[in-house]
Amino acid sequence: MSRVAVIPVPLATCCTVLSCFGVAILLVLGAAFDANVEVLMGHSEDPKDGHAVAQTCYSAAIVYAVFIALCGCQAFTGVRYKKPAVRL
């Protein structure tokens, strides 16, 4: 296993935080579509099958969860194995 972080720590941390928000929002939207909330399903131009849209939201949340795991590992690796400072 390589002990080098491919993604810099600040970027990996940002990705992890944003992915956490993405998972939360997608899970709430998926639950709302699954419950056929009137605001989301009541208009004629809205999707007809709320359950199918909810499944898509849940699938996207899984993708974001994978990003949380990968970027979290990169952030942890970058913090744990810091590169030595270059001395002039």
Automatic annotation (TrEMBL):
Annotated Pfam families: V-ATPase_su_f
Predominant location category: membrane
PROSITE patterns, per database record: PROKAR_LIPOPROTEIN
Transmembrane spans: 58-79
Keyword list, A-Z: Membrane, Transmembrane, Transmembrane helix
Subcellular locations according to the entry: Membrane
InterPro entries the record matches: Ribonucl_Kappa
Recorded superkingdom: Eukaryota
A cellular component term, taken from the record's GO annotations: membrane
Protein name as annotated: MARVEL domain-containing protein
Naturally occurring in which organism (per UniProt): Mixia osmundae (strain CBS 9802 / IAM 14324 / JCM 22182 / KY 12970)
